[in-house]
Amino acid sequence: xxxxxxxxxxxxxxxxxxxxxxxxxxxxxxxxxxxxxxxxxxxxxxxxxxxxxxxxxxxxxxxxxxxxxxxxxxxxxxxxxxxxxxxxxxxxxxxxxxxxxxxxxxxxxxxxxxxxxxxxxxxxxxxxxxxxxxxxxxxxxxxxxxxxxxxxxxxxxxxxxxxxxxxxxxxxxxxxxxxxxxxxxxxxxxxxxxxxxxxxxxxxxxxxxxxxxxxxxxxxxxxxxxxxxxxxxx
Length: 234
Known about the structure:
Low-confidence stretches: none
Strand content: under 5%
Oligomer: single chain
Radius of gyration: 23 Å
Helix content: over 70%
Shape: elongated
Number of strands: 0
Mean pLDDT: 91
């Protein structure tokens, strides 16, 4: 039987309900009763992050790290708070610390890459996304961020391909079609830009263009015809 009064269960219910003020008060009370209680300390910082009180969150992360200097939960909370404060050089230091304990931590690898992107070090960022993708080829975060890095470096074709890989894995990502479309426009490929904006995957574009040429109609007209046929077949 689940103990509903167990602090971890109480905190989880508050967090899931988005009651971050109540969660903060509850955890603060826990901390005052037992100053070194990790559950209270760690979740004070989590509640403060969700209340967008990042400086205060860092204070409590540091309290945890004074007790346990390599507490993964506190390190990741502190990284998130620092990212929100645009303190990217400090993020790099903490990610390096995380990776020294676990070189396979894809969250840390992606966070390292993101901060390098923010510091305009896109080539270095690619190294960390590649490491993450060697561990998990379906890491959508790494695929998306690698596409962004490649785009900043002017490598638009490869960027499009990485966006496309991410789109195949998670078609719900609404930002991908527009991002791909803009890159096709930079490559002066208006037909592909139109199709990308409609959410068409790269592998399906050639057939639409070939059919449009065969039917002597525009890409727009061919796409509409295909969509109409799909609708009627349902």
